[in-house]
Amino acid sequence: MDMFLLEAAINGLLLAGVLALLTLGLNLIFGVIDVVWIAYADLVMCGMYAVYWLFAVYGWPLPLAFAVSVLGVAALGMMVHVLIIAPILSSAPINQLLATGGLLYFLQSFATLLFTTDFRNIGVRLPIIEIGGIYISYSRLLAFGVALVGATALYLFLKRTYIGTAIRAIAQDREIIGLMGVDQRRIYLVTSAIGGALAGLGACLLALQYDVHPFIGNTFGPLIFMICVLGGLGNMIGGFVAAFIISQIIAIGGYYFSTELSYVLAFMLFIVLMFIRPQGIVGR
Amino acid sequence: MNARRIGALTGLGVLLALPFVTPAYFLHLLIQILLWGFIYTAWSTMGRFGLVSLGHGAFMGVGAYVPALLWNYYDVTPWLGIPLGIVLSALLGLIIGYPCFRLKVVGHYFALVTLALGQVVLLSIVAARDITGGSLGMTPRSIGHSWYALQFPEKRYFYAIALLVWLGGLLVWRWIDRGIGREALEAISDDEEAAAAVGIDVTREKLRVTIISAALTALGGALFGQYLMYLNPESVSGIGVSLQIVFAAIAGGMYAMLGPTVGALLTIALTEGLRVWFGANFVGAANAIYGILLILFVVFMPRGILGWLEMARRPRAGPAPAE
Amino acid sequence: MRAWRKFISAGGPKPIMLSLVDVSAGYSSLRALFGVSLEVAAGETVGVIGPNGAGKTTLMRVISGLVAAFAGAITLDGRSIVGVPPHRIVEHGIAHVPENRRLFPRLTVEDNLRIGAFIPAARHHFAEQLAWVYQLFPQLRERRRQPAGTLSGGEQQMCAIGRALMSRPRLLLMDEPSAGLAPLVVQQVFDLIRRIRAEGLTVLIVEQNVQQVLEVVDRAYLLEVGSIRLAGTSTELKNNEFIRKAYMGL
After folding, report:
1. % of chain A residues with pLDDT over 90
2. How far is A88 from chain B (nearest CA, A)?
């Protein structure tokens, strides 16, 4: 088997980790609160800037910068829910799109104001590892590992805890959840915080590998949405699987053609799949 | 002649007189308002019937790049290039629309398909960087004042073109609004199956409106390319542009003919005003405020500014319909 | 566990637990209840019967807080619970088994029961409460890892009742427990209600199946078009001419 192809496939697998994490976050929010956060990728952008700021500008130790960033984006998620989402919960979806779109503009512009449009890198260079002739970026490997841990932690939380069970339940019957003694507003808040935390975690992992600039959300935002829908909107496992499939397409396509073309392929595949099976490949 | 007619004619007269009395800077703004207003109106011909497209950047991109590429590489005049771009764009609308409507891909899913389409066009342009210049953009070869190349350094010419095209867009909007298409489309928007049961060819009506919208948007994109003499994949096909179109059209009120144009007027006025106020130091402030206004707007004025004015004018007819 | 069961089955004079006085309620365009008054004493089992659309479900929802009352007083042990949100009402000891079961279809049976024990007071006793529910409904234990949506109608009703019991309520509201169930299963459900009753729980049942419910309750009210038309002990109502003709087909 072609070594380089294998390498591409493995790197694709590792990329999938971060994408899967972000997909989980978006799916959680959509599945539970039923609102489309089109600005979700921009929350990730904020997290990336937070890491940059704390680590590269203020010189905090990296793990601390990571931890604070994750908590910060979780808090941001809650704030967004309270200020923007909660008031428009019963509005038409198009209005919700407008509101979260306004948030998108706001976050992107605010970041531009603070940091200008320069590309910024936190300057952490992690080594490239060689395993049996294949070169793997250590940061990618780390990102994959953390993503797996994060996903597992989320899974356990949702399965084993009371709040986690309530979160799973509320997506299935919003109206009577109160009869179980569950405060719907509190669940929404917790969900927003977790979604934000996942975005923050994804941000930390992305910051290790990529430069940040105010509009970076536009590059992977549509991709995350597409993955979510492919896996079935709100379907966490489906999103996870879809993330891996799409990452492979991108990695292998990138090997044979160019990176952009591989994305084009992925999106075209998405369109075709939407025609064939709109509820997603795994679907409900 | 009723008040409306007089108002419209006066407005038209003012618009025609403007190039002779306003400085170039304002003409520049007006051209933008007219062209964007035209594009927003084109979008809203689909949007108001429930076909929310998040990927109109695709049509803008095709419409803009096709004539520019043909001109730069083959010396093909935009008078041919632009129609070709329009046709290709309409074709794109057809290719996407037909399966969608036939297979009942609607609502969220339709929006996402259009989003993906926008990305496909964007990334294709970037991928073909050898011919398109990729993310750095490309410049149509300039030959000065020329009808053949549709290039005019003097703004007045473009103003006239923009005005004409904008009026044309309004006419098309009105044609769809008045024609049998409108009732059909509203029926479809409300309840597809019922509409089909009454004999309305759902797919055909939706396709019609999609193709028109795609074609007009392509024209808008092409004209922008010719006017600005610079094309950049992000600025014609990026997700930012696609969203901008959606938001401005809805903010202005996509149920009224002049609504999208009002959206263009307000957003451009806001951007320019803020730029003047904050100066170049605060690049980005405009959009930040725009974003906040958008959020506040959704909470307080869901039917758009014109819609809100409409409701304020009319006496209270009863509780507003649940959205 | 024992403490809870002992408490609710203590003998002595029965104080009024739930009281509705002149309650009016409905939805934004539709008024469903007009000046309804009723009482449930501790340890009693009370029924509310009436035709479709009479407002029975609205009555349950007003008590459990899903619907706000326009007017009137609702008190639990003398304390007003008007305007209290549903998740708080559960903490006061009222559990509502909704119409149509409303289980969480993709959660397992056990998860459905677990969520019933969400409130802190119930969480601490989760294990014993679960054991008791499984004892009452052995079929649930067998199927505890199955998604609740795959259960039969009767099993779903058991699960819904079990879920409500997990919150260790003092008052159980049951909305049409026999709806949509085969006659044999209906019998099982009502046997179950007798058992719950025997444990000393206070129960308020809303039912269309007049014959069955009058065998189980101490007293009942007749609700028609949003108002209480008749009230009395189950014996009195069983022998009432109007009820016999209109609702029992006799």
Report:
1. 38
2. 7
Q: Taking residues B87-100, what's their average pLDDT?
A: 93
Question: From B237, which residue of chain A is nearest by alpha-carbon distance?
Answer: A218
For residue A163, the one-letter residue type is I
Partners of B108 on chain A (C-beta within 8 Å) are 36, 93, 233
Report how far residue C249's alpha carbon sits from residue A235's, in angstroms, rounded to the nearest whole number: 50
Band the pLDDT of B251: cuts 50, 70, 90: confident
Query: Is the distance from CB of C92 to CB of A179 less than 8 angstroms?
Result: no
Q: Six-digit token pair at B59? A: 């049509």
Give me the residue from C66, C104, C123 closest to A162, CB to CB: C123
Element (H, E) at B191: none
CB contact under 8 A, C90 and A179: yes
**Two tokens, residue C139:** 């079929």
Task: Report d(CA C32, CA C26) in Å as an integer.
Answer: 5
Chain C residues within 8 A of A181 when measuring between CB atoms: 87, 90-91, 118-119, 122, 167
H or E segment to which residue C202 belongs = strand C202-207
Interchain contact C126–A (C-beta under 8 A):
no
Tell me the C-alpha distance between A228 and A282, whole Å.
11
Task: Name residue C38's beta-bridge partners.
Answer: C20
| Predicted pLDDT at B180 | 64
Collapsed DSSP state (helix, strand, coil) of residue B279:
coil
Question: Mind spelling out the 3-state secondary structure of C51-108?
Answer: CCCCCHHHHHHHHHCCCCEEEEEEEECCEECCCCCHHHHHHCCEEEECCCCCCCCCCE
Question: What is the 3-state composition of chain C as percent helix, strand, coil, each rounded to the nearest 5?
Answer: 40, 30, 30
Contacts A113 to B, Cβ<8 Å: 282-285, 288
- For residue A267, give the nearest of B99, B116, B302 by CB distance: B116
Say which DSSP state C150 is in: G
With contacts defined as CB-CB under 8 Å, which chain A residues touch C118? Answer: 162, 166, 180-182
Closest chain C residue by Cα to residue A163: C118
Q: pLDDT tens, A106-156? A: 999 889 888 888 888 877 777 787 777 777 778 788 888 888 899 899 999
pLDDT at B151 over 90: no
Contacts of B118 in chain A (CB under 8 A): 222
Q: Which of residues 172-231 of A touch B (CB under 8 A)?
A: 214-215, 218, 221-222, 225-226, 229
Inter-chain CB proximity A109 and B287 less than 8 Å: yes
Q: What is the pLDDT of residues B206-223, one digit of tens each?
A: 898 999 999 999 999 999
Task: Count A/B contacts: CB-CB distance under 8 Å.
Answer: 147
Inform me whether the C-beta atom of residue C111 falls under 8 Å from chain A C-beta atoms: yes
pLDDT band at residue A1 using 50, 70 and 90 as cut-offs: low
Q: A155 vs chain C: nearest CA distance in angstroms? A: 14
Of the listed ranges A49-58, A117-126, B68-77, the one predicted with least confidence: A117-126
- Tell if the CB–CB gap between A172 and C96 is shorter than 8 Å: no
SS3 letters across chain A = CCHHHHHHHHHHHHHHHHHHHHHHHHHHHHHHHCCCCCCHHHHHHHHHHHHHHHHHHCCCCHHHHHHHHHHHHHHHHHHHHHHHHHHHCCCCHHHHHHHHHHHHHHHHHHHHHHHCCCCECCCCCCCEEEECCEEEEHHHHHHHHHHHHHHHHHHHHHHHCHHHHHHHHHCCCCCHHHHHCCCHHHHHHHHHHHHHHHHHHHHHHHHHHCCECCCCHHHHHHHHHHHHHHCCCCCHHHHHHHHHHHHHHHHHHHHHCCHHHHHHHHHHHHHHHHHHCCCCCCCC
- Residue B280, amino acid: A
pLDDT of A233: 76
**Nearest-Cα residue of chain C relative to residue A175:** C66
**pLDDT reading at C2 higher than 60:** no
